[in-house]
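During the reporting period the student researcher (J.K.) took over the structure-prediction task from the postdoctoral fellow and processed the backlog of single-chain submissions. One of the processed entries is reproduced below for the supervisory committee.
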Amino acid sequence: MDLIPVILSGGVGSRLWPVSREAHPKPFMTLPDGQNLIQKTFLRASALEGVSEVLTVTNRELLFKTEDEYRAVNGAGHAQSYILEPFGRNTAAAVALAALQLQEAHGDQAHMLVLAADHLIQDETAFADAVAKAVKLSEDGWLVTFGIQPQYPETGFGYIEAGKAGELANGLKVARFVEKPDLATAQAYVAAGNYFWNSGMFCFQVGTVLEEFKRHSPDVLQAVTEAKQCSRLAQAKAYSCLSVDPDSFAQVPDISIDYALMERSEKVATVPCDIGWSDIGSWNAVSELTEADQDGNRFEGEVLSYNSRNNYVNSEDRLTALVGVEDLLVIDTADAVMIAHKDHAQDVKHIVGQLKSSGHTLHQLHRTVHRPWGTYTTLENGDRFKIKRIVVKPKASLSLQMHHHRSEHWIVVSGTAVVVNDDKEMMLHTNESTFIRAGHTHRLQNPGVIDLILIEVQSGDYLGEDDIVRFEDNYGRCS
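J.K. obtained the following structure tokens:
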């Protein structure tokens, strides 16, 4: 049996700002145990019986970051494949692309297990049991969704109404999907006993789901097929990467898998399960991962508290003090602080909307920005100057590039740098420096086996990140 987990990693998680941002979205948030959500999803998926490959559908800008996160935990060396979307087109497109890709690689009988990269599942034994049941159902031609046993009347989730017990050996037929209810309706659902939270996780055979797409959403399947035909596939041993063509992908309908397929098909079943599932949809959900003290406070980082109760503080960079406050969420990052009442945790997304509409970059970038070759951290940004800390991974290289408006001074803090500066090439060691004049073609490489760390001082009339012309690049970022 071929079982291929398909990890969908496309959401931003705006309700978890200021930690979650477009360039560092929710799946990459580090949890109290030191792992992030996408690592946990990868480990949970790759540990299932019959899995030899994990396919991830993500934004092309997050490929190298995702590879780094997987590399840190992929001790078993599972094969990795990727589908890189140029922009989001919702879950129907992602699932259809994955199904077409897996059809070519594994055939119609292969089983797809569709998982979100940003969900937390705490009972992995129960999860594995639920997957085994879902696989058996999918072998009989069912499109299977995982229904979470509701713990309380939640109004923020969609629900699955299940049919009578006993009709299927390993699950229940789905009578209908229902939208997010009001509180009274949610209470009635929980009391009824045959309603389950819609987890957004699925299992089906490749041939079955493609046939159902053809029957119920032929426009999605046709557009995705055409986009795939125009896309580029790179392959190596235990690795493949499909980079989706942006022009043709823009023609794909923007619709969820629920609306495009699951609500239309008559072949849908659910596996009810109690697996310790959470979509980590707000800071309230994140706070539950930390043990409360005697006053009901939950703290991450250095926090002092006096006469304060039932608060959550996430502040890893500096000391936070609470005095006489209750029921607050305090999230402190290097460049932004968010304070909200717990009752308004869902409204954080409106702040992100304000940042976007005003053109502010803090909805998108952290002070530390990840690049394929390493990271840079903006230490200070003033009038006509900017100071960065740059870390280049071993054997990595920045692009051969040029800036029109800024000059750069590079000072090596540790490691060894090979620098191309116009027509000269030189090697710099710790405490050595060089000057890159505006208009000069230049490149920075780390030839060593440890991180190269340097300080970059930029000066000029314009210091925006878009003032860059790339001539050569190891990561496909040149036109």
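The committee noted the following: The longest helix spans residues 90-106.
J.K. will present the remaining backlog at the next meeting.
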